[in-house]
Structures are given as C-alpha cells and as structure tokens.
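Question (not urgent): is this output format expected?
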Amino acid sequence: MELYEDCEEKMKKTISALQEEFSAIRTGRASANMFDKIRVDSYGTPMPINQVAGISIPDARMVVIQPWDKAMLSEIEKAILKANMSLTPSNDGKVIRISIPPLTDERRAEIAKQAKKIAENYKVAIRNIRRDGIDEAKKQEKAGTFTEDARKVMEDKLQKLTDNYTAQITKILESKENEILKD
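Got this back:
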C-alpha cells in the first residue's frame, strides 16, 4: 500500500502547485497573489515582492505596495514593468500604486486559454504519476513482492485515483475560467 500513498501524496502536491500557479493569473481584479512570481533585485539577491514590501488591496481595482526600505521603490517598479503584466505602477516617493485596468474580452479569452493549457499540463503530470506507479508495481511483481492479482488491483486503484485528481483539476479550471471571464 505504500506505493498507493506515495502516488496520492504526489498528486496532492500537483493539485497544490496548480492552485498556486492559478492564484498568480490576473483576472481583472486586484490581488496580492498577482505579484507572487515577480522577483525584485534586493541588494543583489532576487526576492519576491512580498518579502521586501507590504502589499495591500484598498479596493477591487487598486494595489498599493509599500516597501520597507524606500530605496527599493525603483527596483520594485522595474520588476513590475519587466514582468509584462500590462500594469503601470506609479510611485509617489513612499508607495507604489497600481491601478488594475479592466480586462478586454479578447485578453480574458487569451488568459482563459492560457489557464486551460496550464491545467492540461498538470493533468499530464497526474497521468505521469500514475504511469510511474504502475511501472513500480510491475517491478515489484517481477521482484516477487507483488502477485499478478495485487498488481492488477493496484493498477485499478491508481486509475481511480488518477480519474479523481484529473476531475479536481477540471473543477479548479472551470472555477478559474468563470473568475477570468466574468466582469
């Protein structure tokens, strides 16, 4: 049974990684997660924005980034512009304000398409975990630790587990698409 638990744990981590990646996708609403993947050069070391500044969301279309060190203002601004998120930061010497423009229908469709592609990659990862688990079961059968029946039972269990996790990915994708496509 250790093989099954190992595969299930890997699949759970895959779902967590998908959710983390989806949280960084822009949906037309302000979110601190939008900046999770952006790295700022902090005295020669690339760091996430949330480790060099406080990020607040005063309303649905505004993000305020307040660096803990005023010298970081221009570095944060450069990193946001370099991230190519179609956002224009404005710096007043103390904080950076970013107005989140509403997404065009074309851009929403583009982002939804990108989300589908990401979800498909994660489904492939889940299927690869299943394949690796089945390969391991076959190895154990050859080594004599699994009987043929036990291997077949394991393959069925891994297939059900795979179906469950790919369905979860589909559900997460549908939720993200609704978030992206609604105003």
